[in-house]
């Protein structure tokens, strides 16, 4: 689905300019620029080691950029960190909820950290939306990975963020659950008019859910566009074919320039 560009004076959910991260001689992110508008789901794709998680960690304020600027809803992350971070949230498979607390306790504590108003009612809504009612008093550490993913997604939506960062949100889900979660995330993004940055290695998922994709390789954005139109534009049948081609021959797409 193509969505309209921002029509009012509202800044994009996310604007990144010349973002760079270097570890010694290794350039993990090489000065990238990108935008995520409201009502838009943007896929951040790339082979292992391309710089996706490093980028997301800089957007979350976990990693300090070597250079560049990040604005969330027009608010500069480095200058006004607290305010900017209150407008975002994330879910990632490598960041599970503390295992010794129950689902309810976790949502309550994260909700308090985010200063969510009407927290009790918000938690009930999310428990219902993510089919977590039966698990509310169960410790997160004993949940299956799919159940933990649903808790992480519920946590990510506690503060109804205008910018949602999702690092492989369906990686541990079975196909039916993944399909269900994709539908819920799309519905949520549409309802809340939020922008979503979504990383995934599942190209059919990306083609289904993302309005736009960015191909990252060796820390650079090599291609950008509609995931349904990009493959044909580059002489490939599917997004997966295109991904494989870019991963094998990044220099053909300008990775070395
Ligand atoms: N703390 C660090 N010190 C040194 N190098 C690092 C550090 N963190 C990441 N890197 C390197 O930066 C590069 C980008 O890593 P990153 O985790 O962002 O990739 P990715 O695109 O998320 O990969 P994957 O799909 O495998 O998760 C890799 O070469 C990685 O080894």
TrEMBL record:
InterPro entries: AAA+_ATPase, ABC_transporter-like_ATP-bd, ABC_transporter-like_CS, ABC_transporter_ATP-binding, P-loop_NTPase. Residues 14-243 form the ABC transporter domain. One of its GO terms (molecular function) is ATP hydrolysis activity. PROSITE patterns: ABC_TRANSPORTER_1, ABC_TRANSPORTER_2. The keyword Transmembrane does not apply. Keywords: ATP-binding, Nodulation, Nucleotide-binding, Transport. PANTHER family: ABC TRANSPORTER ATP-BINDING PROTEIN, ABC TRANSPORTER ATP-BINDING PROTEIN NATA. Belongs to the ABC transporter superfamily. This is ABC transporter ATP-binding protein.
């Amino acid at each position: 689905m193509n969505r309209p560009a921002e029509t009012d004076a509202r800044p994009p959910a996310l604007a990144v300019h010349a973002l760079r991260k270097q570890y010694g001689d290794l350039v993990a992110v090489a000065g990238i620029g990108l935008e995520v508008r409201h009502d838009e789901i943007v896929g951040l794709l790339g082979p292992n080691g391309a710089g996706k998680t490093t980028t997301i960690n800089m957007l979350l304020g976990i990693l300090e950029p070597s250079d560049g600027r990040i604005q969330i809803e027009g608010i500069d992350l480095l200058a006004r960190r607290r305010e900017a971070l209150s407008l975002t949230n994330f879910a990632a498979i490598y960041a599970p909820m503390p295992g010794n607390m129950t689902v309810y306790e976790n949502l309550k504590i994260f909700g308090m950290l985010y200063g969510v108003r009407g927290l009790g009612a918000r938690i009930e809504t999310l428990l219902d939306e993510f089919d977590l009612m039966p698990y509310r008093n169960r410790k997160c550490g004993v949940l299956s990975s799919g159940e933990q993913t649903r808790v992480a997604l519920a946590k990510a939506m506690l503060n109804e963020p205008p910018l949602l960062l999702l690092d492989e949100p369906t990686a541990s889900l079975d196909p039916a659950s993944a399909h269900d979660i994709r539908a819920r995330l799309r519905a949520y993004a549409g309802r809340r008019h939020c922008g979503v940055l979504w990383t995934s290695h599942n190209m059919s998922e990306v083609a289904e859910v993302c309005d736009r994709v960015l191909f990252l390789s060796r820390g650079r954005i090599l291609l950008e566009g509609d995931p349904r139109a990009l493959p044909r534009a580059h002489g490939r049948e599917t997004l997966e074919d295109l991904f494989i081609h870019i991963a094998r021959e990044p220099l053909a797409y300008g990775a070395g320039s």
